């Protein structure tokens, strides 16, 4: 069994902590916390950085490379002394495992990041009519910390968790669970407003729900975000979600109705060079004043 699998045991059996079978838990999602036997353990700056590093990197770490990552730009001997001081400052029996030149958290230490990665791997197998607790996928790794070693793992986990949420939203939409699909996709957009795949999942969730105005508003919000932040281009990858055909069946009308004839408050018709393309939120209905 891998280190990730051992430390993600609470994903499969969340009752173990309440039974007292686990002594230590480290959290790095959103903020850092070390608890031992149910009590929070205060740590100094270097000791906290050490425990966080080992929580984010579950495999045993060579002491030399560990010291170099934690104290970059410092001479190797000085960094090694700082590492030794940090290890001594942790002073939590059973938390660390030293094996020759390597150091790691003990195999039975719970880590919320390992739980979250286990959830990411298992989420595709969870039936859509189940309601798993995915709150672990709502936060980044130590968002206020700026060390380069954190930035790499933070972005890696960010991509994994957002992809998992987006895929879950699409599955919920396909199963007709529209409110749940919209809520999940909205959480992905909130976490990464400029991420096209998150915006796509939300637009598709709105369309599956029959909420055309909300889908169009999301398209236009995203287009405006790209324009204001990076100067464009338009999100052409999302154009296919709003069909370019000159007709759109609205509210289960008996006949397809021209989109220009749909009087939806707050939407205006936009016509590109190739003909009618989409409805745009925020404008006035043709023929009226604001």
Commentary on this structure:
This protein is α+β, with helices and mostly antiparallel strands. The chain has three domains: 3-112, Winged helix-like DNA-binding domain superfamily/Winged helix DNA-binding domain (Arc Repressor Mutant, subunit A, Orthogonal Bundle); 126-242, Serine Threonine Protein Phosphatase 5, Tetratricopeptide repeat (Alpha Horseshoe), CATH 1.25.40; 243-290, no CATH class. 44% of the residues lie in helices and 13% in strands. The strands form four sheets. Strands 3-2-1-7 form a four-stranded mixed sheet. α3 (45-56) packs across α5, α8 runs antiparallel to α9 (196-209) and α9 (196-209) packs antiparallel against α10 (212-230). The longest helix has 27 residues, at 148-174. It is elongated.
- How much helicity do the residues have? 40-55%
Number of strands: 11
Following the backbone from N to C, one meets helices and strands in this order, namely HHEEEHEHHEEEHHHHHEEEE
Task: Quote the beta fraction.
Answer: 5-15%
**Cα distance spanning the termini:** 65 Å
Radius of gyration: 25 Å
The CATH architecture category of the largest domain equals Alpha Horseshoe
Q: Averaged pLDDT, please?
A: 80
Net shape = elongated
Q: Please, how many helices?
A: 10
The profile of the biggest β sheet is: 4 strands, mixed
- Based on helices, strands and strand pairing, what is the structural class? alpha+beta
Topology-level CATH name of the largest domain: Serine Threonine Protein Phosphatase 5, Tetratricopeptide repeat
Strand order of the largest sheet: 3-2-1-7
CATH class of the largest domain: Mainly Alpha
Low-confidence stretches: 1-20, 245-290
Q: Tell me the number of structural domains.
A: 3
């Amino acid at each position: 069994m891998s280190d990730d699998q051992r430390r993600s045991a609470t994903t499969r059996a969340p009752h173990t902590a309440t039974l007292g079978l686990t002594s230590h838990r480290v959290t790095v999602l959103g903020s850092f916390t070390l608890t031992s036997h149910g009590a929070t353990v205060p740590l100094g700056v270097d000791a906290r950085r050490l425990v966080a590093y080992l929580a984010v990197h579950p495999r045993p770490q060579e002491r030399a490379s560990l010291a170099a990552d934690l104290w970059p730009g410092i001479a190797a001997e000085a960094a090694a002394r700082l590492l030794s001081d940090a290890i001594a400052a942790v002073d939590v029996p059973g938390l660390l495992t030293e094996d020759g030149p390597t150091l790691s958290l003990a195999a039975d230490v719970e880590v919320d990041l390992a739980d979250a990665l286990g959830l990411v791997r298992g989420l595709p197998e969870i039936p859509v009519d189940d309601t798993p607790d995915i709150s672990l996928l709502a936060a980044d790794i130590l968002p206020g910390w700026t060390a380069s070693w954190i930035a790499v793992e933070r972005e890696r986990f960010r991509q994994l968790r957002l992809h998992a949420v987006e895929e879950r939203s699409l599955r919920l939409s396909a199963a007709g669970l529209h409110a749940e699909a919209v809520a999940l996709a909205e959480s992905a957009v909130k976490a990464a407003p400029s991420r096209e795949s998150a915006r796509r999942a939300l637009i598709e969730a709105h369309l599956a729900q029959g909420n055309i105005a909300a889908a169009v508003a999301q398209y236009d919000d995203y287009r405006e975000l790209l324009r204001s932040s990076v100067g464009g281009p338009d999100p052409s990858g999302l154009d296919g979600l709003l069909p370019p055909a000159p007709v759109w069946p609205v509210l289960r009308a008996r006949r397809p109705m021209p989109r220009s004839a749909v009087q939806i408050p707050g939407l205006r018709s936009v016509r590109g060079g190739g003909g009618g393309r989409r409805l745009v939120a925020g404008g006035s209905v043709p023929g009226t004043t604001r």
